[in-house]
Amino acid sequence: MHKNFIYIMMLCCFLCLYTGTANAQTRTISGVVTDNTDGAPLLGVNVTDNLKSAVTTTNNKGYFTISVSANAKSLSFSYIGYDTRNIAITSANTINITLGSSANQLNEVVVVSVGYGTLDKREVSSSITHVSGKDLLTVSANNPLMSLQGKVPGLNITNTASADPNSSPRIQLRGVSSRSAGLGPLYIINGVPGGNIDNINQNDIESIDVLKGGAASAIYGTRGSNGVIIITTKKGTAQSQMFYDGFTSFDYLNNKLENLSAEEFIANRVQNKQGQNYGAQTNWLNEVTRSPAFAQKHTVQFSGGSSKTNYFASADYRNAEGIDLRASKREYGARLNINHTTDNGMFVATLTAAPRYMNTSNADQGNFNNALTLNPTYPIFNNAGKYNFINTGFFSNNPVENANLIKSQSEIKELDINGSLKMNILSNLSTLVTISQISRSGKNLNFSPSTLSSIVNANRVTQTNFASQEQREDDQKNIEWTGNYGLDLGKNHFKLLGGYSYSLYNYKQVYAQNYDFPFDTYLWNNLGSGLYNGGAAGQGQNAVSSTQNGSTLIAFFGRLNYDFDNRYILTASLRREGSSKFGANNKWGNFPAISGAWRVSEETFFKEKLPWINELKVRADYGVTGNQDFGNYLSLLLYGGAGYFPFNGQYYQVYGPSSNVNPNLSWEKSENLNMGIDFSILKGRLSGSVDYYTRKNKDLLGNYNVSVPPNTQATTFTNVGTMKNYGIELALTGQIIKKENFEYTANLALSYNKNKFISFSNDLYQGGTFQDVAGLPAPGSPGNIQRIQEGHSIGEFYTLRSAGVNDAGALLVYKKDGSVVPANQANNDDKQFVGNGLPKFIASMGNTFRYKQFDLGIFLRGTFGYKIFNTTAFYLGTPSSQTDANVLQSAYDSGSKYSLLKSTSTTSIASDYFLENGSFLKIDNVSLGYRQNLNIKYLKSFRIYAAGRNLHTFTKYTGGDPDLVEVNGLTPGVNTSLNYYPSTLQLIFGLQVNF
């Protein structure tokens, strides 16, 4: 039904397009735009008519030509750093104008995406941060959002393995918001919700808008609780342009953990009967490291056309190595955007397609930790020249062998495609239909050979070599239909939006594996030749699996923007949305929002008394958002395998209920309140914003114990919990120095966040008052070291409180009654709250200098006010660590408190003895460039640049780079895995050319 509807709509739209084109009446206007101070021509000035149906830009001589409808009344000329001018269209076909520098930065036409449309920055009444593409950091990263790190107050972007070219960052806005549903924001790419975030080349980004306030996010209903990030890519212009950007990068190990050398191991471990000397000198960490790791990326962009039909096309290639021996990534991407406007300006059609192919070799995230713990006197190869079989230490394997012989690869294909047709029915009335499809296909390939030393040494005859293939497919189809109506009644200005949205999601997965192939050379390409899973051993039931599931989301929404005399602004919106994920009694929900702003600086009394304040806007907003980022079919009664039943000498698979039905399952609800101030003073030399927010997340999802019967299962997935976040955000921009040949601009972003978990229970479902989380792995049984408890914050460490170390080297702790005992004489009842892993403050400062053709950027970033559990010190940092395993140098450093823990009686007992101050300040990014404009036939300008990332970290934390310890999610400040991927210092050298 929906497919037929789409086809009919497309047919009607294109028939109208043909008809409108046939009856076109246009005229062509040309002219030159210059600077009013020196008469120099201005390149790249945006020229558009008041109907928004024609657009062009000036060339390097300031010349423009534009075809406008006969109904057009005026032309608008806008340019960054200059005042916008609106010129009435008369009978003349030539318009020559001059532009003057803007005295007030907020007077620039800064277009902000607000969801289903854009607004002038001055009209925004909710909390939205706008970042231009030119302000993004210079990085060589897998994900373009790493270039946004530290730029937006309240948006925390972390990557615990940034030197892995296949890693992805974790992104969290204004604190943790859920227990069991997704924590990441919703991505909107060119107006399409849910796009592939890694299918974007950073060079293609025009701007990024982060919707933080609930009133802004509420227009996206059940997907808005964690914020919305809107990415707008570059569009075509009438001016023909070609751009190239290419760089190479080199990653070097930085701030790495240091373990004992062979000589130190013999002196400290072997002589104390805590290890053996096998005669070699092996630096295992160096042996599994590729340093420097090399990467290169090349981008070519083309744009051009006319004022009626223009295009933007780009293509990029990236080849990157990881610092571990196995990791690498090769990718090819492209993006094409075509815009066409009919001569009469009635119809505007757009088409965007963005394919990407990625071939990856996946890192072994545990291999560096293997190398840290291995006895350094053990050789890599045996006397026969083959990889040595290692069965001592923590992990009992040869990491060099693993890196070189075990294969883990992926082939990923992505395609984002969308088309839209806009009909300008009247000068103030339009409608827009957008159809889009977002698809991702990933094939995971794994193989381990029969020649592994562990297989050979065990004389294995079954389950020798192993191979698997897995195919995953994600597909999302959308159709959205919106209408916009604008009305000006004197000083009263109205903008009305109404719309409909339909999204269909589908997921498929197929997995197959086998063992015992006749040849290792088959890899994963001949699974049927294996003998174990599908053969006489009768293990076929484990050899294959498959699944398919999907969901549907439908919404109706509307928004009204009103302002009086550009002083009083009011916005109200409502989204009514339904999802197939929800229970039968809660399929639909309403998500209202309201926001208001008062531009105090526009009042006459204010201008007269405080003329040095150019802009002062006070705003407040309230909105209800939702979170439906959880699995499909969780509200339904599902059936699954329940064993085998014998009948007439044969066994039959039995199926029975595997989950409880929950007709009341619903979305997590978030109530958001935000109050803020935007300001600009001293003719725009200092500007910024301050925000205070509270967010109460209700009906948090989780599994709760229920009685059996009447239920078939002991737990039900339902909405119960409540938590709250509140905080303050500050953003400042200052033009410290502004002279003809020298400029210095500083940007400061600061955020403070506080979290409180309120309740695990409601009237229907009664949970406990706490949940223990952050369980540490073996060896030993350390247990959980954090607790989520009512009345406390997420990230609270709940362990024994240390009281020092006794003369025997045993850890001392406080019991519940205050007495001091060795840690092995305490129990779980003696645990206490001892610190928090959730940062209080996150801050950054960007410094941009320009001297003639040179530009210099220095970006500082820091996280403050939290604790980190030093996992590596806990397992590898004491003299009592596992026998025949290597340890950190701090274990035998008299200046380290960990060197005191010599007794094995308290090993593997967690306490706050291993908590350290996680605060750090990082010289995160330094870039230096030189730009030269050229007046030659084939070349307009070029820029060469160099950049450094993660240059130095100021911190008291002794466990390496504190930035590698996750602070997003439910267990901030602790690494619950023994995996370790070192940080790197990254050097980038690049060239940009405009043709």
UniProtKB/TrEMBL annotation:
Domain named TonB-dependent receptor-like beta-barrel is located at: 364-951
Which keywords has UniProt assigned to this entry?
A: Cell outer membrane, Membrane, Signal, TonB box, Transmembrane, Transmembrane beta strand, Transport
User: Which InterPro entries does this entry report, sorted A to Z?
Assistant: Beta-barrel_TonB, Beta-barrel_TonB_sf, CarboxyPept-like_regulatory, Plug_dom, Plug_dom_sf, TonB-dep_OMP_SusC/RagA, TonB-dep_OMP_SusC/RagA_CS, TonB-dep_rcpt-like
Tell me, in one coarse class, where this protein mainly resides: membrane
Note whether rRNA processing occurs among the keywords.
no
Q: Report the membrane topology from the UniProt record.
A: Multi-pass membrane protein
Stored SUPFAM superfamilies: Carboxypeptidase regulatory domain-like, Porins
* Protein name, UniProt field: SusC/RagA family TonB-linked outer membrane protein
Organism field: Pedobacter agri
